[in-house]
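Something for you to look into today, if you have time. Could you write out one complete protein record for me, on any chain you like? The space below this message is yours for that.
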Amino acid sequence: MALNIQQNKKDYLLEYANKYSILYVEDSKTARKSMRDVLSIFFKDIKIAQDGLHGLKSFQKFSPNIIITDINMPNMNGLELIEEVQKIDSEVSFIILTGFTENKHLLKALELGINKYLIKPINENKLIDVLYQSVYDLEFKYQFERMKEEQELLNLTMDLSPVLTVLEKSGDVKYMNNSFLDFLGYENHEEFTSSHRYLYEILDDLDSNIIFKNYDEYLANILNYEKNENKVSIKKKDKTYHIFKVIYKFYPHTDTLVSFFTDIDNIEEKTKELIKLSEVDTLTNIYNKYAFDKYFEIIYSKFRAKKIDDVSIVLINIDNLDTVNESYGRNTTDKIIHSVASFIKQNLYNGEFLARFNSDEFICILNNKDLKAAHKDAETLRLAFMEQFDSKLTCSFGATQFKISDEKKDILYRLNDAMLKAKKGGKNMVTIAI
């Protein structure tokens, strides 16, 4: 099974990698030649540089999509190169290559947002893994942007071509075009007015969330709205609801209000799908790191503004997953990751945020909980793991608490330190960093 998965990744690279350009930065001539031979199997556009400074010049000239860079190089090291490139283009995918395993290098890479790295000597399967993930991420972004453009074009088309039209005079519905009547399910205007005198009776304003008691209140809400454009929900004859964008035009001398409705119900559904696609991890069906970064920013800002008293954060790492992967293959590790995510989610209280942070790590933000409470919850979860999986599967936990003096990176540094202590201490334990 593991061989099949690896072959699938190679096939994926053969199909999609040639769309993207790659830059390889390495000070070893022998390594450069060897890597070029491998990369040429999948990529057509390959650039090579001998150190960070030459790599930066090559990036400025060719703008590659992916950069593989060694860390320890003359003139400019790999991490310095990444910092300079990110100032120019934050969308570049990076893979760091190093013979070092010191925490300071990996922590710096984490600070820069890099989570794909290779340790020398390079294992072919691990190289395929990180190349696959880089191309997959780029292809996902491409498809996501294309969907957004299609949605914008659809919006524009609907904006310019309103279909449903209603005319109200002094509050009474005087005219509905046939398209609107057909949509609502009424045979004609008379059938509608026999059931409803006012349009607002079947309309919920989703922007103001006001339930209108009379026409004057309804009209005042429209006139107070800066663009005279609202998102509304309309109730059909069969009692179902549909979402529209409505543009209003009011003529005060004749007390006449004309409304143009554009159907955006499908767009609302597509928008929800896009948001889920971008923020949910497909394997575990919980939030991904992108969603965590957004939520972390929001919670951090609220904490700094003293809108939240206590915030703690817990990192959960599945012990010995690499060994399982080597022995049983990726399919088994994926099942374990999915099972662990489901178990954590089931044991969280409402309102606690959970995301997949890395391949074998999960991160949880606990609102209104100090470090003591976070430690207690983590210890309870650790013991529950052992009982649930009969001690055959364990997890290590690191925890820390937000401090008012913290920068965001300080919190993540402490959290990583706590996890390192748990791993070095023998795993299957909870450690905290103050």
Q: What stands out?
A: The first helix runs from residue 2 to 16. The two ends are 44 Å apart (CA to CA).
